[in-house]
Amino acid sequence: MDSTLDEARRLVASGDYKGALQVLRGVETGEDNHFEIAYLYGLCHARLGNWDDALLYLEQVATGGLDSRRDEQCRIALAYVYSVTGRHKLAEYELRTLREKVGETPRVLSFLGYSAWAQGRIDESLSLYGRALELDPEFANALNGMGYILACEGKDGARALTYCRKAVDLKPDDPAYIDSLAWAYHKLGFDDEARNQIRKALALAPMAAEILEHAKAIDRWEDSR
Predict the structure, then answer these.
(1) Which of 24, 76, 129, 208 is the most exposed place for a label (fewest CB within 10 A)?
(2) Which helix (H) or strand (E) holds 194?
(3) Mind listing the pLDDT tens digit of every residue in the chain (225 residues)?
(4) Would you tell me how many other CB atoms lie within 10 Å of the CB of residue 69?
(5) Torsion-angle region of residue 103: left (phi > 0), alpha (psi -120 to 50) or beta?
(6) Residue (of 56, 25, 31, 33) closest to 43 by Cα position
(7) Phi/psi of residue 156, each to 5°?
(8) How far from each other are the two terminal CA atoms of the chain, in whole angstroms?
(9) b/e 135-159 (16+ beta carbons within 10 angstroms → b)
């Protein structure tokens, strides 16, 4: 077992993606570890927002020979990069391929739900998130997605707030979930709580574009009162 590769895995698991990249440069590549190293490179670049580099590695792995667990992780990461770079049809293709291989898991269904929403298929998106929650009622990603979409679409503000609150209860330090909660409060007209939550989200992720957009919208709404 390559101890250097083990160290890279440990750094990835701890969230030190820059450190992991430095260590990976010292790993000797061979036939037995080529795809594993490419996956780790791709994941690190995805986490750091280096989208082109992430795709370079992850697309190699998706057509390669990883075990089923790593294949699932790779395709999820690849779908994520496609989504954040606006290539939603490609993201959906990876997710549907993965669903055929591993079945309907809460994570795959949640990512499919997001992809459907990004392409304007609202009812399908809510159905996918709903199926994810049937499989795991405590799956924070699905709770957040369901709540955020309900809030954005104005379908059921009270239920949206319930979902978003539960997601934040499960993962209280996730800025995206806190942002969704702020937006749900905002859509219901709870101005003080919306402002409190969006400030928490900004403190955790001050450069996140969507959080900044929501903060501006909430501030404009506050100023107009």
Answers:
(1) 208
(2) helix 191-204
(3) 478 899 999 999 988 999 999 999 988 888 788 888 989 999 999 989 899 999 999 988 887 755 566 777 888 889 989 988 989 999 999 899 888 888 899 999 999 999 999 899 999 999 999 999 999 999 999 999 999 999 999 889 999 999 999 999 999 999 999 999 999 999 999 989 999 999 999 999 998 889 999 999 998 744 444
(4) 9
(5) left
(6) 56
(7) -160, 85
(8) 64
(9) ebeebbbbbbbbbbbbbeeeeebee
What pTM did the predictor assign? 0.80
Q: Which two tokens stand for residue 128?
A: 């996918």
Tokens matching residue 68: 């089923």
- Measured distance CA(22)–CA(20) in Å, rounded: 5
| Amino acid identity for residue 109 in this structure | L
Number of residues that make up the chain: 225
